[in-house]
Amino acid sequence: MTEYDHIVIGGGAAGCVAAARLVEAGRRVLLLEAGHSHHHPLLDMPPGIFKMINGSKFMRYHRTTPQEHLNGRVHEISQGNVLGGGTSVNAQVYMRGRPSDYNEWDSLLRGNNAGVRWDWEHVLPHFRGMEGNNRLYDERHNSDGPLLVSDPGYIDNVSRWFVQSMQSLGVPFTHDFNGPAQRGVGFYQFMNRQGKRSSAAYAFIEPLRANPRLTLKLNAAVSRIVIENDRATGVVYRDGSNAEHTAHASGDIILSSGALVSPKLLMLSGIGAADELRTHGITVTADLPGVGQNLMDHPEVPLIATFNGPFGYHGHGDGWRMIQHGMHFKLFGGGKILSAGVEAGAFVNPLDPEADPSIQAFCVPDIYLDRDVLDAVEKTHGVTITTVVTKPKSRGYVKLRSADAAEMPIVSPNLLKHPDDMATMIAGQRFFLRAFESGPLGDRVARIVKPDPADLSDEALATHCKRLVKTNYHPAGTARMGADGDPMAVLDAQLRVRGIANLRVADMSACPNINAGNTAAPAMMIGDRCASFILDPALASQRREDLRVA
Ligand SMILES: Cc1cc2nc3c(=O)[nH]c(=O)nc-3n(C[C@H](O)[C@H](O)[C@H](O)COP(=O)(O)OP(=O)(O)OC[C@H]3O[C@@H](n4cnc5c(N)ncnc54)[C@H](O)[C@@H]3O)c2cc1C
Predict the structure, then answer these.
(1) Mean pLDDT of the 131-148 span
(2) Which atom belonging to ligand 1 lies closest to the Cα atom of 521?
(3) Which atom of ligand 1 sits closest to the CA of residue 11?
(4) pLDDT for residue 539
(5) Dist CA 143 CA 137 (whole Å)
(6) What are 459-515's pLDDT values in tens digits?
(7) Which of 25, 35, 24, 31 is nearest to 6 (CA)?
(8) Is 80 helix (H, G, I), strand (E, B) or coil?
(9) Mean pLDDT, to the nearest integer, of 295-305?
(10) Of these four, 28, 99, 343, 400, which has the most CB atoms within 10 Å of its CB?
(11) Phi, psi (5° rounding) for residue 216?
(12) What pLDDT does residue 538 have?
């Protein structure tokens, strides 16, 4: 029987980082990834995301339950099904959130920290230690980490017009959304370098592929964790030909299957709400009612306008034009193919310009809708500004459909269910609609298509939001950390599953509250911290940079 020091379940954003750190430190690690290899041209190319969103083997499509508050609508939350997880299929926007996000986690976790801190001061070194930024270098940014961060490789005029129009409306330009102030309009930075995606797979696992301490198995879907006498000792998984295997570890097992699958695997292993588990005939190992609860995600609603000329990316991703852009890149190394399809964005608080931004916006130089509502607008030259609530209050859940590991879990994200989220979203929609009527962008707009400009009442905007709201692909919080005595806490402050030895959860499930902004970098930070906790519990509060120097 092969025994490993650690098993990491899921080679996504957090799992790749955790596995790599442990291998670098001399541990023998088995990394089990249910999805495919990350070596594929569509994954490497920044705009590949738009090909995948509409159906790909590299994605796992979770269909929601009918959302009553959205008039029964069923929508999808797609997640990466590939080594690198979300970081191999995402839009690559590099965003950490703001210091107050982590200071809030820290204050929620007080009481059982035993010296473990999650405040900004203690998470920043993990972000910074991983970062290889080719423009920024200061106390927040680093230039020589493995995760390559760069400015957009190509900026379409539409993105420039958006940034200028927002400035004409008084929104200040920012050159760094991860800088001291998140507020402003500007161009995002991306986990990318010269057209090549810097996923967690490329940045962290690829350099270790020849390392004998790392065993990587792709198409290996874990079905449950083996728990003996309240200690995690192994995992059961199925390989690509559906044969079942069991692997064992002497040390910690790290569950990193993402916020929609990690709670499912906990429940299948007998960890969850006891009553719920019993209804599926699962023997209860740890009664933790928080498993699967507290599902958070950033809701995103589009504003769409058509252009009075052939601007933006419409038609550039298909047929001969796509070939032309590919040839241009091969011959000259540049062009539209270096854009992930989004380059610019903004963080604002529409109701109080001085307060923390309540809305993040993305400018997509094309008409961009989710799969279930693709027919809502006829495709032509146009622009989409999506508005995203940065700190949503709505909470959903993940539950087991059955005790069969092959079944997808039941997912109900409840996007925009909380009235405050809807009010924030409506304020954001009104704020960004003005970009279609102002400055250089306004000069090119032929018609506002969504929402209907003839009726911008709260009621009409709420109807529009309910019809078109989609995930920003950031599910989180379904196995969250919490203080001792918090009945819904699944993990302690070192990401350990309460009541079970040798088992940690390191992915976006662990977040007590969602960060304001995209979630790949935070997931990697969690993976990095998890490895630190394992490698030297006494140094649990120490910083990655210090550990590297030591
Ligand atoms: C389309 C899309 C666009 C996005 N755009 C951005 C962006 O621009 N910027 C940004 O910061 N964030 C973005 N995100 C979000 C970001 O990528 C995720 O928040 C992040 O990847 C989450 O990390 P994680 O480790 O929690 O889970 P994941 O990265 O999802 O990793 C989970 C891994 O577990 C694997 N897995 C699942 N089930 C099993 C099983 N049974 N056994 C073994 N392995 C399993 C999965 O295949 C996956 O590889 C986007 C996500 C998507 C899907």
Answers:
(1) 97
(2) 11
(3) 49
(4) 56
(5) 6
(6) 999 999 999 999 999 999 999 999 988 999 999 999 999 999 999 999 999 999 999
(7) 31
(8) strand
(9) 98
(10) 343
(11) -110, 125
(12) 65
Distance 193 CA to ligand 1 centre (A): 20
The closest-lying atom of ligand 1 relative to the alpha carbon of residue 91 is: 8
In this prediction, residue 547 carries a pLDDT of: 41
Backbone CA torsion sign across 53, 59, 64, 69: negative
Q: Which residues line ligand 1 (CB under 6 A)?
A: 9-15, 32-35, 49, 78-81, 85-87, 89-93, 95, 221-222, 256-259, 261, 473-474, 507-508, 518-521, 523
The rounded Å distance from CA 236 to ligand 1 centre is 21
Task: Give residue-wise pLDDT tens across range 65-97.
Answer: 999 999 999 999 999 999 999 999 999 999 999
Q: Please state, in angstroms and rounded to a whole number, the distance separating the CA atoms of residues 310 and 149.
A: 31
Mean residue pLDDT of the chain comes to: 94
State the distance from the centre of ligand 1 to the C-alpha of 215, rounded, in angstroms: 21
Of the pLDDT bands very low, low, confident and very high (cuts 50, 70, 90), residue 318 is confident
Are residues 396 and 384 in contact, defined by beta-carbon separation less than 8 angstroms? no
Our measurement of the distance from residue 183's CA atom to the centroid of its chain's CA atoms, rounded to an integer in Å, reads 21
CB atoms near residue 51 (< 10 Å): 16
For the stretch 67-86, what's the b/e string if a residue is b when 16 or more beta carbons lie within 10 angstroms of its beta carbon?
beebeebebbbbbbbbbbbb
Smallest CA-to-CA distance from 533 within 504, 501, 499, 498 is with 504
Average confidence (pLDDT) over 161-183: 97
The encoded tokens of residue 333 equal: 């190394």
Cβ proximity of 265 and 479 under 8 Å: no
Average pLDDT over residues 440-447: 98
Structure tokens at 414: 């409840």
State how far the Cα of 31 lies from the Cα of 175, in Å rounded to an integer.
38
Mutational test site, ligand 1, from 61, 79, 386, max ligand atoms within 8 Å of CB: 79
Whether 474 sits among the annotated catalytic residues: the reply is yes
pLDDT value of residue 12: 98
Residue bearing the CA closest to ligand 1, atom 31: 12
C-alpha separations of 230 from 80, 112, 130, 243, 490 in Å: 31, 21, 34, 27, 15
Q: Are 219 and 239 in contact (CB under 8 A)?
A: yes
Beta strands in 394-523 (DSSP E): 397-399, 410-412, 445-450, 470-471, 503-505
Mutate to test the pocket of ligand 1, among 261, 266, 364, 400 (most ligand atoms within 8 A of CB): 261
Nearest CA to ligand 1 atom 17: 86
